[in-house]
Amino acid sequence: MAVTESVVAPEGAPGESEGARDGGAGATERARAAHEGILRRQSARESAARTYARALPIVPVRARGLTIEGADGRRYLDCLSGAGTLALGHNHPVVLEAIRKVLDSGAPLHVLDLATPVKDAFTTELFRTLPPRFAERARVQFCGPAGTDAVEAAFKLVRAATGRTGMLAFTGAYHGMTAGALEASGGATDVRVARLPYPQDYRCPFGIGGDRGAELAARWTESLLDDTKSGVPLPAGMIFEPVQGEGGVIPAPDAWTRRMREITAARSIPLIVDEVQTGVGRTGAFWAVEHSGITPDVMVLSKAIGGSLPLAVVVYRDDLDVWQPGAHAGTFRGNQLAMAAGTATLAYVREHGLAERAATVGARMLTQLRGLAAEFPCIGDVRGRGLMIGLELVDPEGPLHLTPDGPRPAAPELAAAVQRECLRRGLIVELGGRRSSVVRLLPPLTISDEQTSAVLDRLADAVSAVARGDHRLGRDGARGADAPR
Q1: Do 261 and 286 form a contact (C-beta atoms < 8 A)?
Q2: What is the DSSP string of 87-154?
Q3: I need a surface site. Which of 30, 114, 239, 312 has the fewest CB within 10 A?
Q4: Residue 187, pLDDT score
Q5: Count of CB atoms situated within 10 Å of the CB of 59
Q6: Contact (Cβ atoms closer than 8 angstroms) between residue 118 and residue 107
Q7: Strands 243-244 and 138-142: what pairing?
Q8: E strands within 284-425?
Q9: What pTM value is reported for the model?
């Protein structure tokens, strides 16, 4: 049985602080003043590009497992988990111990790409977790600290190996924020990457969904590659996410994934699988490609592999390793603390069966959330895999799309309201999807049964409040600050 962290936020009014319950009104007011001051200074000093801070006006000062405590004393259950980075939650003991061990050893913390015992241990553990057929011929390139750099490295790799330049990517994709990664993502504006339909049931691009919709998507891909007048020359590679996260939590069907492998293999197109968010047990398998059983040519890894610290790698089949020395580099690719934390995380997830637990807990959550959707028509769809879950909010009175039982219009304003109501109740969730209409849950793999129930209860209460229209009112019935005037 997996070891889980079982702290649940204290009972009481949503967001009520410890100080208020203890009667320390003065201390509580000072804490709140400090909290507000930090937020004001952030708003005045930081870039307009900041994102999470806008929807989550909290100032974390302590964290453990699923629980975060803010500077104002409020506690929250964190189902954002560093956008999926925290496989073991905040400050897991095995991660802290691994970091302390390196710090206390006197080992250098910055080593560029030199070999070290810490790196050797990380690489050994990483290869132990990879799909066996992939691992037996794999090479690893340590990249800059973010997943987007690993995506860029993967593109450079397949272009160098094939001598071709074009790339295939999918609608709704998200691969990072640097130029090449953005070109392959769903929000690209200056398109130099051929875009393919990503299969999904709820908003199928062909209005069909299911196996038939996925098959049509695969046939479209095949036709584009084989039609000499398609305008798409043979590409250097294809990249896709086994579950689109930012695209709205859309799992790729396993049969479709196998078709993509067949299509690319038959045409000598390297297949790149972006496991930045899906990896390390998140979807109920250690790596999401294991659900379909395919062996990709390249895997892009980041987020959870660093155990909460910045780390990114690209792992690929050895015959693609045509790079010259220095063809891809980065000053901070030798992050020793991240490698130590990553080794501890990978080993803990593997040894404690947390991928299997994610599958079990995720299935339970999906079942209960589908029951919630049956009760509230504003939830158009519930989907996900393992502990990567999304609820799409829709206008329950909007027109149906394409078919008599087709999807209703996305409702980003309702999703934002659910997020705000969740925060009021001490629950942190993320938004995603094409129109930011999907409420996303990415809890740590260590979430306990008790915490799972607390998360579901708070989310259900938030959805109920939004469905009733209570989100437009303050607690005393007065119109709230976020309500239309």
Answers
A1: no
A2: TT-BT-HHHHHHHHHHHHHT--S--TT---HHHHHHHHHHHHHS-HHHHTTEEEEE--SSHHHHHHHH
A3: 114
A4: 66
A5: 20
A6: yes
A7: unpaired
A8: 298-301, 313-317, 379-385, 388-393
A9: 0.89
Task: Return all residues near 24 (Cβ < 8 A) that are at least 6 apart.
Answer: none
Cβ-Cβ contacts under 8 Å for 104 (sequence gap 6 or more): none
Q: What are phi and psi of 417, to 5 degrees?
A: -65, -40
* 292 token code pair: 């379909």
Nearest alpha-carbon partner for 123 in 274, 282, 311:
311
Q: How far apart are the first and last CA of the chain?
A: 52
| Tens of pLDDT, residues 271-293 | 999 999 999 999 999 999 999 99
How crowded is the C-beta side of 456, counted as CA atoms within 13 Å?
A: 22
Cite the DSSP H helix spans in 227-375.
254-266, 336-351, 354-375
CB 75 within 8 A of CB 296: no
Model confidence at 1, pLDDT cuts 50, 70, 90, reads very low
Q: Name residue 298's beta-bridge partners.
A: 272, 316
Which letter, b or e, does each residue of 397-425 get, where b requires 16 or more Cβ atoms within 10 Å of its Cβ?
eeeeeeeeeebbbbbbbbbbbbbbbbbbb
Choose among 170, 313, 300, 319: nearest CA to 247: 170
**Backbone φ, ψ for residue 380 (5° rounding):** -80, -35
